[in-house]
Specification:
The complex is a heterotrimer of chains A (521), B (232) and C (343). Chain A has helices at 7-34, 43-76, 82-89, 97-108, 113-120, 131-156, 159-167, 172-200, 204-209, 218-228, 232-252, 278-306, 315-348, 352-363, 369-380, 390-427, 432-443, 445-460, 477-486, 490-518. With 521 residues, chain A is an all-alpha fold. The longest helix of chain A is centred in the C-terminal third of the chain and has 38 residues, at 390-427. Chain B is an alpha/beta fold. Chain B folds into two domains: 2-72 and 148-229, P-loop containing nucleotide triphosphate hydrolases (Rossmann fold), CATH 3.40.50.300; 83-146. Chain B contains eight helices and eleven strands. Chain B has helices spanning 38-46, 88-93, 104-116, 132-146, 162-179, 190-196, 214-219, 223-229; strands spanning 2-10, 15-22, 27-31, 53-58, 61-62, 73-76, 150-154, 182-186, 199-204, 207-208, 212-213. In chain B, α4 (132-146) packs parallel to α5. The longest helix of chain B has 18 residues, at 162-179. Chain B is globular. Chain C folds into two domains: 38-139 and 257-311, Periplasmic binding protein-like II (D-Maltodextrin-Binding Protein, domain 2); 140-256 and 313-341, Periplasmic binding protein-like II (D-Maltodextrin-Binding Protein, domain 2). In chain C, strands 1, 2, 3, 4, 5, 6, 7, 8, 9, 10, 11 and 12 form a twelve-stranded mixed sheet that branches. Chain C contains 13 helices and twelve strands. Chain C has 343 residues and is of the alpha/beta class. Helices cover 37% and strands 19% of the residues of chain C. The longest helix of chain C is centred in the C-terminal third of the chain and has 19 residues, at 323-341. Classes of the chains: A mainly alpha (521), B alpha/beta (232), C alpha/beta (343). Chains in contact: A-B, A-C. At the A-C interface, α1, α4, α9, α10 and α13 of A face α1, α2, β2, α4 and β7 of C. Chain B: One of its GO terms (molecular function) is ATP hydrolysis activity.
């Protein structure tokens, strides 16, 4: 009798679905309805659409392709500090965009480490600006995510299969063909899709590194429609197009399951045989070493540039940090509530309804934050002062942005908990809160910790929606950092960036670790 | 008394019918070939599966539509009888309160029942720290505490060695005696059926037959049972 | 709230929900529970940060007005007009501060603003001022800022395009300096501006969303020059005692940015709003501007400009489109910009 869910769960799930739909599509409609003129798309808009798809496709392909050797090396090698490395490698993904861009430029910029090295040797400095710069930055952001997803796939191959392969004398090449390739074929399209979706809505990266209007993405075109032309109709239409690009991409890989278990444990190493040859060892060491160098050097630069002025950050930065924590924690709670409600609803429905719930949860990332913010503004304005609601709204929209990841982490774990333990709970009459407290939450500790950590970290560094509802008395840490930059105080801004990095990483680490420790059994 | 009245379970590929009653206090083994529907029968009684036709009655009361947790029965599965994240005491305590709101008195009863199944002082342990036999004992402690008039056992001791299985069966009998429960136990092993004493329900060829005395049944097994048991 | 068999939820569990909701709502700061009249001024974010003019100006005005002055940030300067349009006539704001002359015609067209009635004589602007709706509070020249170590500093826009010097500019679609450069090129080159932008293409390292990113990249040494203001070196000189930043004087003249404020017609505090606009031109306000907003005061205070401002270059020709012409030229100029650089 799977598919039976109680009325409270059904109402909660339904409410979550309606809320997510209202926030994504509803806000779009609100913006479109406010439009005065029929939308007009020009050649520049089509160029933006082409560039968006091109950079997102390239970013997804490179991220995934480069992640394969790294994930394989991490899956089969154990070495001291491996756990720490896996955690640190996840850092770029939760980094605030502007912080990451500055870190990247400290390495790859014209005055960065690499260029300085090259110039010492008499070569030209690196030119990072352009399509390749955008792709480089997106790979920096998403390589950790791709690695994590693929590593998950590797660790999901039962150890017995590798034992069987070893007993049959299969070479690493044979193992790749019979065990690893089928896994990759199942995992890669989903991983690539997730990254494609993330890169589609990219804006700040594309603008900073795109090298000019060539690097105009759809999201930037939406900004232009809003700010420059105040053409809400075009903004809504472009937002719809962005959504359609994402939906099409999602449909294109519908036949494979989206990657599940973002939150699974990556701590163990699959016991492997016949991989101790010096060639393979060197290859794995190289993959891990290069990935670590690529991902960690910019982080190190952020730390190095941030430390000098860390001690004399103004008091307002500290209170902004407190506010950011409040928003981040609220966003984490909201993300979990939404994801769990939707996952429960999906478990209780069948056929197209399940598909609709999953699509809703995953595609919420495809909607322009600017359109969501503006739509909310238009909807709320007649009833309340949006500025006084800035922080709760920010928390809500941030929760929406993290929802796809939280959902993908929680849904499979929830299904498994119900499959394995659901009957026992039924037979004991555990329902409602008792079931949630004593069965669901404890069984989901690991993905819950991961999802909450991710949501909190992403929210901590977000500047997207808060800017629209901004109130200086309620500035968050990213706003404060921008304020420092806008007042020429670049060095203090670097310190604020470091503080932001530490807070984001800290939040993620605490939640993720907490989830794992509490899920010890 | 348990009555299965004109029961028909339709699982697409296979159909199981049952029309039988089990007298109060009976200890009935449920035996039959693999895939014949023994576990399916228990699932219908427990309320995990809804029958296509017919009714399940307890003391003349129709149980249709009643949730598993509300039915007058306790069930022990082959595995996953305990929540791995809860302590032994909490796992047993769930039998008293599904939301684990336990009074001091309740806690004392939990400790008593654990002592009764030979797990004195193991309240704080986690399931992962217990042996297979101990896991079964915890599940039985909970059955004891719930004290429902019907006990369903779905091959609960299949993974235990012969000696341990014997001990467990004795414990089942003790628990049943204490609570006065009717027992239905699915098993593969005719020796288990015999050890349980009482009656046997033969499930084969899509039908669950009414219970008959176990000794008599094995003394003169029908053809399907003979095929299943194989040459001695 | 979420499980397969949720038929009932215990009462005390339902009680938990309001607690959570209250926690979320507590994030919404009330900030308006006073008996004093409230004057709400919508402006750009950097105006109201701790390091901008905002805090000092709030203190100075509140000392005399018997009111609560609320400075509300609405993102960056370019977002300000869009925000005013979104809020429309229902706006809670009384004054909008921070539009520039490239946007005033568009702003006037909305009909949201009321005449200020202030006598514009006595302003220290390089141009005459007679706008009935908007009062200027500061101004500056756009300029390319460079490190004094840079050799062969270009002396004009034309020379810049010919040179190998790398520059970082801001996107005119998202930033007011970006839009300023667009108009600058338009004022200097007119019909030839597209050709100039094409010649600039190899000089432009990248185009950022706002001033902060561009200036940050410049200070990190990414480019030789950055689009900013002639007054920017004053910050380095005065606040950091660093004389190594300079603005390049261009022979074609420099485009002017005049930042203005206007009173909203729908204001429920019209008199307070008038008082604020008057106050804006007083010494108390104007003396705060140079070292917080790093711009020239619209009306030089009695004590004069701070030391260090005398070292700044003073362009001979101030370029500025009249508001209506700026509005008309804007879209065409953007189209040319996109066409020249999108290749």
């Amino acid at each position: 009798m799977a598919g039976r869910i109680g009325p409270v769960a059904r109402v909660a799930g339904g409410a979550a679905a309606v809320l997510v739909a209202a926030l994504t599509l509803g806000t779009l409609v609100a913006v479109a309805m406010r439009a005065e003129d029929a939308p007009q798309l020009g050649p520049a808009d089509f160029a933006a659409i082409r560039f968006t798809m091109l950079q997102a496709t390239l970013s997804a392909l490179f991220s995934v392709a480069l992640a394969i050797p790294v994930a394989r090396a991490l899956a089969r090698r154990s070495f001291p500090g491996r756990g720490l490395l896996v955690t640190l490698l996840g850092a770029p993904f939760i980094l605030p965009v502007i912080v990451a861009v500055l870190g990247l430029l400290a390495v790859f910029g014209r005055n960065g480490l690499i260029s300085q090295g090259l110039m010492l040797l008499g070569f030209e400095p690196v030119h990072i600006y352009g399509l390749h710069g955008v792709v480089l930055a997106h790979v920096f952001f998403n390589l950790p995510l791709a690695t994590r997803l693929i590593l998950q796939g590797w660790l999901a191959i039962p150890a017995e299969r590798f034992r069987l392969a070893a007993s049959l004398g299969l070479s690493p090449r044979d193992v790749a063909r019979t065990l690893e390739w089928p896994m990759l074929r199942a995992v890669l399209p989903g991983a690539a899709l997730v990254i494609f979706l993330i890169c589609t809505t990219s804006f700040a990266v594309a603008l900073a590194l795109g090298g000019g209007p060539r690097g105009t993405t759809v999201e930037l075109a939406i900004y232009q429609a809003f700010r420059f032309e105040f053409d809400l109709g075009s903004a809504a239409l472009l937002s719809l197009i962005q959504f359609a690009i994402c939906a099409t991409a999602a449909l294109a890989v519908w036949w494979v399951d989206l990657p599940a278990g973002f939150g699974g444990g990556l701590g163990r190493v699959t016991e492997r045989w016949a991989i101790s040859g010096p060639g393979l060892r060197a290859l794995d060491a190289l993959a891990i070493g290069l990935a670590a160098l690529f991902l960690l050097t910019p982080l190190a630069m952020i730390v190095a540039e941030g430390i000098p002025r860390l001690a004399d950050l103004p008091a307002s930065v500290i209170s902004a940090t407190g506010r950011s924590f409040a928003v981040a924690l609220s966003a984490a709670v909201l993300t979990i509530v939404l994801a769990l409600s939707l996952a429960t609803l999906a478990l209780g429905t069948r056929g197209w309804k399940t598909g609709a719930v999953e699509a809703l949860a995953v595609l919420s990332i495809a909607v322009s934050p600017l359109v969501i913010g503006t739509g909310l503004f238009l909807v709320i304005y007649p009833f309340a002062d949006p500025i006084s609601l800035a922080l709760p709204i920010t928390a809500l929209v941030n929760a929406l942005m993290s929802l796809p990841f939280a959902y993908r982490a929680l849904a499979p774990a929830l299904a498994e908990a119900e499959t394995v333990h659901g009957r026992l709970a039924d037979s004991l009459g555990m329902r409602g809160w008792a079931r949630l407290k004593h069965l669901i939450l404890p069984r989901l500790m690991r993905p819950l910790g991961f999802a909450a950590g991710l949501a909190a970290a992403l929210s901590m560094g977000d500047l997207g929606v808060i800017a629209l509802f901004a109130n200086p008395e309620q500035a968050t840490l990213p706003m404060e950092m921008y304020g420092l930059m806008a007042s020429f105080r670049m060095e203090q801004a670097s310190s604020a960036a470091l503080l932001l990095l530490v807070c984001s990483m800290g939040l993620f680490w605490v939640f993720d670790r907490g989830g794992r420790v509490r899920a010890a059994t | 008394m348990l009555q299965l009245e004109g029961l028909k379970v339709d699982l697409g590929a296979f159909v199981l019918r049952a029309d039988l009653s089990v007298a109060p206090g009976t200890r009935a083994a449920v035996v039959g070939p693999s895939g014949a529907g023994k576990s399916t029968l228990l699932s219908v009684v427990a309320g995990f599966l809804a029958p296509a036709e017919g009714r399940v009655l307890w003391d003349g009361r129709d149980l249709s539509g009643q949730e598993p947790g509300k039915r007058p029965l306790s069930i022990v599965f082959q595995d996953n009888n305990l929540f791995p994240h809860l302590s032994v005491a909490d796992n047993v305590g769930l039998g008293l309160s599904p939301s684990l709101r336990l009074s001091k008195d309740d806690r004392a009863r939990v400790a008593q029942s654990l002592e009764r199944v030979g797990l004195h002082g193991m309240e704080r342990r986690r399931p992962a720290e217990l042996s297979g036999g101990q896991l079964s004992r915890v599940a039985l402690a909970r059955v004891l505490l719930r004290s429902r008039p019907l006990m369903l056992l779905d091959e609960p001791f299949a993974a235990l060695g012969p000696a341990m299985r014997g001990e467990m069966l004795e414990l089942v009998q003790d628990v049943a005696a204490e609570t006065g429960a009717t027992v239905l136990m699915v098993t593969h092993d005719p020796r288990d059926a015999r050890r349980l004493g009482g009656q046997t329900i033969l499930v084969a060829e899509g039908v669950a037959r009414p219970p008959v005395a176990t000794e008599a049944l094995f003394a003169d097994p029908p053809a399907v049972l003979r095929d299943y048991l194989g040459p001695d | 709230m979420t499980s397969r068999l949720t038929r009932s939820v215990a009462k005390e569990d339902i009680m938990r929900l309001p607690v959570m909701t209250a926690g979320l709502l507590a994030l919404a700061a009330p900030a308006m529970a006073q008996d004093q009249p409230v004057l709400r001024v919508l402006t750009y974010d950097s105006f109201v940060t701790d390091w901008g003019p905002g805090p000092q100006i709030e203190e100075a005005f509140e000392a005399t007005c018997g009111c609560d002055l609320q400075l509300v940030g609405a993102g960056d300067g370019a977002a300000l007009l869009a925000r005013a349009k979104l809020e429309g006539e229902r706006s809670e704001a009384d004054v909008i501060l921070g539009l520039d002359t490239n946007l005033t015609a568009d702003a006037a067209e909305t009909g949201l603003f009321a005449p200020h009635g202030i006598d514009p004589s006595g302003l220290d602007l390089p141009i005459a001022w007679d706008d009935p709706l908007f009062v200027p509070y500061d101004w500056g020249y756009f300029a390319f800022v460079h490190d004094t170590a840079l050799e062969d500093v270009p002396g004009s826009l034309a020379e810049l395009a010919e040179s190998d010097v790398s520059v970082i500019i801001q996107d005119p679609r998202t930033s007011t300096p970006g839009l300023g450069l667009l108009m600058w090129a338009e004022a200097v080159f007119g019909a030839e501006s597209e050709a100039w932008w094409q010649a600039m293409a190899d000089n432009i390292l990248t185009v950022t969303k706002g001033w902060s990113e561009a200036y940050g990249l410049f200070l990190d040494g990414e480019a030789d020059m950055v689009l900013s203001y002639t007054t920017s070196p004053a910050y380095h000189l005065i606040s950091e005692d660093d004389p190594t930043k300079a603005a390049a004087a261009f022979s074609e003249g420099h485009y002017l940015q005049v930042e203005v404020a206007g009173k909203l017609a729908a204001s429920d505090q019209p008199e307070l709003a008038d008082d604020f606009l008057e106050f804006m031109l007083s010494d108390a306000f104007q003396s705060i501007i140079p070292t917080t907003n790093w711009m020239y005061p619209a009306k030089v205070p009695e004590e004069g400009l701070p030391e260090g401002f005398d070292t700044l270059i003073e362009p001979e020709d101030a370029l500025l489109y009249p508001a209506e012409e700026a509005d008309e030229a804007r879209e065409d100029a953007l189209a040319k910009w996109l066409a020249a650089l999108a290749r």
